[in-house]
Amino acid sequence: MxxxxxxxxxxxxxxxDRFVAESYDADHRRKMAxxxxxxxxxxxxxxxxxxxxxxxxxxxxxxxxxxxxxxGILMEAFGRGLVSEPYVATAVLGAALIAxxxxxxxxxxxxxxxADGSLKLAFAHSERAARFDLAKVTTxxxxxxxxxxxxxxxxxxxxxxAADQIIVSAHIHDHRGPSGRIGLFxxxxxxxxxxxxxxxxxxxxRACNIELFDVHLPEDxxxxxxxxxxxxxxxxxxxxxxxxxxxxxxIMQTLLDTTLEYTKIRKQFGRPLSANQVIxxxxxxxxxxxxxxxxxxxxxxLQVDAAPIERARAxxxxxxxxxxxxxxxxxxxxxxxxxxxxxxxxxVGAYFKRLVAFDTLFGGSAxxxxxxxxxxRRAVPx
Amino acid sequence: xxxxxxxxxxxxQDEVRGFIAKNLTDExxxxxxxxxxxxxxxxxxxxxxxxxxxxxxxxxxxPVEHGGPDWTPAQRWIFETECARAxxxxxxxxxxxxxxxxxxxxxSPEQKNFYLPRILSGEDYWCQGYSEPGSGSDLASLxxxxxxxxxxxxINGTKIWTTHAHHANRMFALVRTSDGPRQQDGISFILIxxxxxxxxxRPILTIGGDHEVNQVFFDDVRVPVANRVGEEGKGxxxxxxxxxxxxxxxxASAKLREGLKAIADLAESDLTGRxxxxxxxxxxxxxxxxxxDALEMTELRVLSALQTxxxxxxxxxxxxxxNSEIRQAVTRLGADVIGHDxxxxxxxxxxxxxxxxPAMPEExxxxxxxxxxxxAYTIFGGTSEIxxxxxxxxxxGI
Lengths: 382, 398
Description:
Chain A: Residues 235-364 form the Acyl-CoA dehydrogenase/oxidase C-terminal domain. Chain A: Belongs to the acyl-CoA dehydrogenase family. The complex is a heterodimer of chains A (382) and B (398). Chain A has 382 residues and is α+β, with helices and mostly antiparallel strands. Chain A has helices at 7-23, 26-33, 41-50, 68-81, 87-101, 104-115, 230-265, 277-302, 308-337, 348-360, 365-378; strands at residues 121-124, 140-143, 147-158, 165-174, 177-188, 194-200, 206-218, 267-268, 271-272. The two termini of chain A are 19 Å apart. With 398 residues, chain B is of the alpha+beta class. The A-B interface holds A 1-6, 9, 69, 260, 263-264, 274, 277, 280-281, 283-285, 287-288, 291-293, 295-296, 298-299, 302-303, 314, 317-318, 320-321, 369-370, 372-374, 376-377 and B 1-6, 9, 74, 77, 276, 279, 282-283, 285-287, 289-291, 293-298, 300-301, 303-305, 307-308, 315, 318, 321-322, 385, 387-389, 391-392, 395-396, 398.
């Protein structure tokens, strides 16, 4: 039992913190907010050079074999800088699904390119009617003589506009109708019939909705052997939630630091705001919740390879708890900044919005407390 | 980073389980499960302390030369977790965890030789004389006075919230020996034999129906000067050292988890008409469980830091705050889960020696007393408001 960072992990944290501090400032973020791409290709190239894109990938395909703790270290630093590069979509979600479901050939074709920065991925799974139920997929994949025909609609696809390839989930239909299996299809973003409508994402970066109008695809775009991909999807999303939880911790820490500083400087009634006990106690609560969120993000990271129910309980518990902490810290940071907190002139709002986006992604606190409760009743006590 | 135990740690876990299996009697287990106050009564608690002492585990936090087992933080974690899981008695901590470390840190060789073995063996039973009717959170305003008379102090005044004073044969107390420029000055730390003439104890019943705390009166009580720990007037320093021990005990999540499990079991039982089938109850159980997960990880992070000699800092206040709040959430949940049976009051104590048929199933007997008594968790050992002051000052610098 040891929760201290190894020397390598400490170095990773230092280099990530330094990179973010040097490359990301308010001007850069404002520029990105109005950029049609939403992130900087040169920063993406640096991610590749620093080995961060290779970090989570398996070693046999050009990766560094890093685990969820290492990803969390990077993500926390990204949170501090509100980094908007498509790291989760490509290196965490996309690459993990290929590594877990893909054939050796599919892995060889994709992962080394993810590592060197030349291939960006996105995962198109959520559908409006499914809300946050990962098992509900109505997008259909019909077998054709040449391969597959995909039809349906996807929403809230992270960074789909920037992706070279999009992993689309679809319900496989055979000649008897729906098979009950979800398949994952690696689709070129330029495929005819695939229509991407992107929009600015709350808190920075971009997301998109995707329409698939009878998209005809060759046979080999199906990842793996066509067995049901739902367990892999749940696994990948649990991992992504752990990573996003760590990012939220970085965001919350920055908001706490900024707000603390502000309450020391801002004077009303002839004394700093922080001279008031009600303000000090609020900040103490915020500090406590940052700490709880940090514990939960770490716990989720350490459980990503546990048995499915344990992993899912840890991921949902973390998502729910961190989401709740995030809302509190975000809303209180604005409150303690007073009127200025509500304006775009300070960055508090941008950090707050990224936290709200975190809470919404893959389902909010209420959804995940519910999932946790449901899983708890399925769990067999040890 | 690794949450799992290594081979040595697993072997130790087996050893602890073996010890518990051999020494925890059914009677002790039932009595503990049916004790709604913080500590077990001395007959149960001290029986367990004696068993621990025979094994050399009587004082996990003490240095080896005074009888500590020299455990790593991970071993302490395992020990506490296994004890909580098995439901061992809650030994009164005033001796081993509170006055013990102060005597070890600041006592004279004579005091160490006399008191420490008697704490370990359970021969002495201690209570704490800190709070006074006029001095709660503002502890340093205390007024109980010790006036020097030859080789004795003569003590007059009163202490309150004295846990198990009605069982204890000794008290450690903070008393005023002089008036300094600051109210923290002039306080001394003194060890008192409870049989000394002039001491009277008045029981205070708490809202859950338990007699755990008391008010103690001192009327010209003579205590030898040799019973003072450390220097005269430096008692505040020693007392604060002890409070940090009280708050930073650091391993509370395992007990919270067992408490929640008992409530969740009730919720899944026909006794409550399966309260868990209400989505609100099921979700609240998850909310509390997740809060316990977070506290457990924080405790493990602190333990890991301690293992490499890092100072965890003001985090002991966070642990105290969260432990007390989560404990209240568990007991609040319990009160909701038992439904109709929340109306029934069982006034007799101890609950494990009732000589009549109670109005509710035995599994529910402690639920309401624990909820009611549990309001005290955010008050004793420094209120939640004081803990927030400490976090703001020590962690945030405001």
